[in-house]
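Re: folding output
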Amino acid sequence: MREVDDLSLLVGAAHEAGDIARRYFRRDPKVWDKPGSAGPVSEADLEVDAMLHDRLIGARPDYGWLSEETPDSQARLGTDRLFIVDPIDGTRAFIEGDPSWSHSLAVVRGGEVSAAVVYIPVSGKLYAAARGQGATLNDAPVAVSGQTELTGAAVLGTRANFEPWHWAEADVPEVRRKFRSSLAYRMSLVAEGRYDAMLSLRATWEWDVAAGALIVTEAGGRVSDRRGAALRFNNAMPQVNGVVAAGPVLHEELGRRLV
């Protein structure tokens, strides 16, 4: 099965990415700001990006390529399959010495994710999924939590997601709000069942969430944009309209409460 073969490729590439990134972590890597207030980037991001491109495209030369750290090419829009990667998701955390950064790698076919890996090198946690094959953490199956009530749920998201204007009648839910720098890691923690939901209620780059979307779905959860629409990837502008991920019942409740 092609999805399983692609997943094996992603797993090997993620481990190699971790080997590179760990050499720089907490060792004062060179850092600079990207143009247009697009945030910081480090020499580790670029070395990981170059390795991933060489390894993945070398193995699948007919696949397209979309990465946070590679100039975008519209040629990817004409490909049936493509890689969507974030070499280091949570670069600010990486630079600051916070261990909650990840490598996020996905294969997309026809706008849907077919294979995905999110790897957290510092803790050695590797989340993986292939379409129709379930989701795993270090090869053990994972499943989303059974939480059905939004009140009291553990929800990953920034403070901005809980401003009153995002919620019907300004009724902000009473949740246990948590945070991790990497969006891909937040989604994986929902898939693992350690947290009940995650929210990102602004335009979100595809490379931040493509891998996590499949991992949550294969763990039995639901993922949508902030309006409840299914996520589609390989868009001309590679963004989605926010992300909501949770178990099915809690996801439905979030859909009723968000505006």
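--- second protein (sequence, then structure) ---
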Amino acid sequence: MTANEEQTMELEALRSIYEGDECFKELCPASFQYRVGNRGDPKAFLLEISWPEMYPELPPNISLNAFFNNSISSSIKQNIIGKLQEQVEANLGTAMVYTLFEWAKENQEQLMENHHPVVGAMTASLTENTVISNSSVAKKKEKKEQLSKSQKKKLADKTDNRGELPRGWNWVDVIKVKL
């Protein structure tokens, strides 16, 4: 079987396996991304794997350079790539993208054990405070005046398509009266 036929078969397998998986993204038929970890998880990372022309005889290119990974130190990125390269060497000559993604998922804790997300903790605390303050604001706004059907219709007739009153709706005509 040629390298091109193997790539086609692996591509079809990846598409069927990860269909509907929000963590998986096919950038092009030879390049894929997988988010290891849940959204909001400070130890999540985005793994990108692309195939060279002679893949699987040649190893795939592995990258952690996505913007998503900016909070991860370069030493941790190098460690992750090093561990994945060991998996690549063990699977060289076979379709391995699925294997690499699954290995990264299974070993996420070990790969990210030295990652200490300071920014993530601050963001979580700020988000928590924002949620609390927003809920108290929502409680204050609950007492809304109930309009009758006819009042709503009159209000709708006066407003434009964005629900805003037209410019000058409350202006008063000034009439000059001669005495």
